[in-house]
Amino acid sequence: MEAKENRERTDSLSESLKKPLPKILRAERRGRVLTYVSSWVLILILFSLIMFITSKGSSTFLDGEVQLANFFSTTWNPGEYQFGALSFILGSLIVSVCAALVSAPLGIGAAIFMTEIAPNWGRKILQPATEILVGIPSVVYGFIGLSVIVPFIRENVGGLGFGLLAGIIVLSIMILPTIVSVSVDTLQAVPNHIRQGSIALGATRWQTISRLLIRTSLPGLMTGVVLGMARAFGEALAVQMVIGNAPNLPFQLLEPMSTLTSVITLNMGNTVQGSAYQDVLWSMALVLLLMTLLFIVLIRWMTKRSDLSS
Q1: 38 and 129 together in one domain
Q2: Structure pTM?
Q3: SS3 assignment for 27-57
């Protein structure tokens, strides 16, 4: 049987060698050129977007239309040229961090259950359910929050229902599938002999999970949390529908507030081209870009730590 397989493999290799060498080289050259062109187009698009948003966002301060101290204040009154965006920056940060704090234990716990505890039929149910949650559009999450969560908060907790609490609940549900997916992949990447060795030494299943698997997978688990936080930070429509869109400091759970994305989406179409108002919105977009780049650097650092620890 082995001799027959070796003979077939030798025959296929000899047939490939019979092909004209220039034809093979041309095909390889075309593939290499296509790969390089695709890579450089991607890099060009990325740097073009970064340069465009940076030039538009920084022109607000370079032209002297708005002072940097004015931009990082809490006074928002465009009619009197007061463009304080600090409330919106804090709103984006606080709602993203709080949503990640809510979703992180739920997502990591669900991933542990799927990989270490659930039987095969449980995994077959939970995995498609997670994928379905990922595919739901953000506007659907926002509409559910507007129809269910906001009235529930108004009737049972107090306030208008619109505010930081509603935004945290909607965003925590939205980023939960991302955290679950990354955490499942991280836990499955742990070699099985580590689990077997721990159990052979007398550790229980829960001791193996809590003291070995979680610690070993911690950089990858935190990468999933940061990815979810990055998605929450850049989310616009779902948050805009439930937070109330008021220029208040985001320190009250039941008070309406705004984020950078909600302010940009609400006002960009209503401003005059080249006005100070529109330039300030571009500056907010630049802040969003810088924060996204910070998240990417943080994710890369955590991934590098995970590779080193493994």
Answers
A1: no
A2: 0.80
A3: HHHHHHHHHHHHHHHHHHHHHHHHHHHHHHH
